[in-house]
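note to self: dont lose this again. the chain is below, predicted strucutre after it. 79 aa total, dont forget to put it in the shared folder this time
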Amino acid sequence: ELVCGDGQRIFEGRILELAGIKSVSVNIHTQKAQIRYRDNQVTAETIEAHLKDFGFTVGGVVGNAIARSRLPSCCFEKE
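---
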């Protein structure tokens, strides 16, 4: 879902809600994100679960369907 500016802003905002996040950098052209965090405050698994809760696909696993339906339509790659 990292294909548009809206998705990027939503993604970054949701990540920054978590305690222990140092920074997040999203590249919508490569559809990749770099997340720096304090591993004594938050785990990678917690971050992934948080993103899935908001409808994002992580590691090929589609997130929460209801939250996903609330994401802007531009967040999804055109097939």
